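ARCHIVE CARD
Drawer: 12
Card no.: 0347
Subject: one protein chain, sequence and derived structure
Cross-reference: see card 0346
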Amino acid sequence: MTSRRYKDTYDSFYHSKEWQAVRRQVLDRDHYLCQVCKRAGRITPAGTVHHITPLRVDYGKRLDPANLETICPACHNAEHKERTQSLKKKKSKIKTEKQKDVYEFKQNPEIY
């Protein structure tokens, strides 16, 4: 589960001009093709730039093009299994909440 501190720390980074510039550079370098698929002999268009060494492990490599690669959504989800787990939990929680749209009102103890 992602903590609020993680979200606050990295949200500003991912919206920075520096990140946008390096991201564009990596996408151009990799010709908008998934590098994981390419190594497996497949050609897959991609638009996500992935940190090989995660930011949590080494924040100093956050703008290093050698630590970045273009990756497709399927490969990115495979790299971040914890995200798919939390997504499944969110979906099941939403489904459960939708089933709870019947409200039960109890008697007011002050009146009865």
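Annotation on reverse: The beta strands are 48-51, 68-71. The chain has a mean pLDDT of 81.
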